[in-house]
Amino acid sequence: MMHVLPYLVAAWVFLVGCYGLATSRNLIHAVGCLAVCQSATYVLLLAVGYRDGGTAPVFSDLEPGSRPVVDPVVQALALTDVVVGATVTALLLALVVQVAKRHGTVDPDELSELRG
Amino acid sequence: MDDVLIVITLLLVAASATAAVAVRDPVRQALVLSLLGLTLAALFTVLQAPDVALSQLAVGTALTPLLLTLAVRKVHRRPHTRDDGRGGETTGSTGTTGNAAAEERGE
Amino acid sequence: MSRRLRMWVLALGLAGLAGLLGAACFDLPDFGGDEHPYGDRAVRAALSHHTANVVSSVNFDLRAFDTLGEESILFGAVLGTVVLLRQTRDERHVEPAPARVSPPVRRYALYALPVTLVVGLYVVAHGQLSPGGGFQGGVVAATALHLLYIAVDYRALRRIRPVGRYEVADAAGEAAFVLLGAAAMLGGSAFLANSLLPYGEFNTLASGGTVPLLNAAIGMEVASAVVVLLARFLDQAVEIEESPKPPDNPDEPGVNAP
């Protein structure tokens, strides 16, 4: 079980986020659900790069070659993604604020009625 | 030992992610998201990714919830929301004091 | 589509996705396995370039071009937010009133501010040596400034935060990254190749060639990006509100883009 559990958790988090995104009645809540979906990708990336008994790939206090290290490439990917994801969240929230200003509601159902 | 820690933090992440979606009020959701950020940071530390954990700690527990709360405040602060009788009250209470997050509790 | 029908479509889609993801999970290499060809090569390359923190080496040396892309997304997102959240003609500026802060909160925030700021700068400066770097330290340093909002009030924060200069710093960080990459080309190697500076002595602040410089550029960009983003949102939440005379027609001229 241990060899797939992290992947299953990542899949679960992603699915839960998708469910929230689709059923949300408030666009701000939907943006929060998207943040949940994003965190699933971090869990998946880091789970792929993990190595049993490995340590962090930082050699300032570690003799190179003395211990196995986990995969640094996926960590670099996840790391930039965390920060960039936050700014994209900010952009989406700015869009929501604009929607609220123009239409007076942040409920997606009411918005589609307005347009129709 | 490592495996036990990994399983515990993974389950915590799954639980807080579920809670973050299940909580429908955006302000409460922001609080749960910051909890999710904390559990993710713990998981990343256990998975030997201190760089990502640091990043998640700064962004996930502080920045994203703060942005969400500010957006909620802005959306609810509009003088005329909709004609459900709340409009007048909102106009009256737009006291522009400093602290944004504290004022939003009522909604 | 009725709500009921939509829920059925959603349930079908989620079930299908769950099935596919579940099947994929069992086909992935086992969690904790020993096979990491890219990781092993990245570690070797980072050590040969005298960078102690391999993650920073991947970000700012081995895959620096990828980071340029990420940084451009960040820059574009900030630009979009600034454009979307500017003060429009039908809005007015409300001067925030001074707020009363309880003394323990004020004391704590005022002590924590310099400490947090220094921690943020330390994390940026030691990115090539220990966990951290421009992305993390930038966010920490930027949020540190906002402790002043908790300690005093919004007007105090506004005084130490000229948003225009931070916008310039944001662009300067992005430009510095591109220029450092182009400088490597002038030196006769590839764009963003780590060939400009000597690699230095392993595990010292000046090690890693251009890694510390690119790291600092990112730190500057991320810190000012976060300051600008929070400034725009705080302005909207605290200062800007709609004019008291609401126009009867909700369709503002020219802004009701589809």
Summarize the structure.
The complex is a heterotrimer of chains A (116), B (107) and C (258). Chain A is an all-alpha fold.
Molecular structure report:
Chain A is an all-alpha fold and about 120 residues long. Chain B contains five helices and no strands. The C terminus of chain C is likely disordered. At the A-C interface, helix 1, helix 2 and helix 3 of A face helix 1, helix 2, helix 3, helix 4 and helix 6 of C.
The value of Rg of chain A in angstroms is: 19 Å
Helices and strands of chain A, in order, run as HHHH
- Proportion of strand residues of chain C: under 5%
The main β sheet of chain C shows up as: 2 strands, antiparallel
Radius of gyration of chain C: 24 Å
Structural class by secondary-structure content of chain A: mainly alpha
Count of alpha and pi helical runs of chain C: 10
Distance from first to last alpha carbon of chain C: 21 Å
Bin the strand percentage of chain A: under 5%
Membrane topology (chain A): Multi-pass membrane protein
Pfam families (chain A): Oxidored_q2 (PF00420)
Keywords (chain A): Cell membrane, Membrane, Transmembrane, Transmembrane helix
GO cellular component, one term (chain A): plasma membrane
List keywords for this structure.
heterotrimer; A: 116 residues; Helix Hairpins; C: 258 residues; mainly alpha; 64% helix; membrane (chain A); NUOK/Mnh_C1-like (chain A); CPA3_antiporter_subunitC (chain A); transmembrane (chain A); transmembrane helix (chain A)
Please specify the SSE layout and strand pairing.
The complex is a heterotrimer of chains A (116), B (107) and C (258).
Chain A: H1 5-23, H2 27-49, H3 72-103, H4 108-115
Helix pairs in contact in A: 1-2, 2-3
Chain B: H1 2-22, H2 26-46, H3 50-76, H4 87-92, H5 100-103
Chain C: H1 3-27, H2 37-48, H3 54-62, H4 64-84, E1 91-93, H5 103-125, H6 134-145, H7 147-151, H8 154-159, H9 163-186, H10 211-239, E2 240-242
Antiparallel strand pairs in C: 1-2
Helix pairs in contact in C: 2-3, 3-4, 3-10, 4-9, 4-10, 5-6, 6-10, 9-10
Pfam family, one (chain A): Oxidored_q2
Keywords (chain A): Cell membrane, Membrane, Transmembrane, Transmembrane helix
InterPro entries (chain A): CPA3_antiporter_subunitC, NUOK/Mnh_C1-like
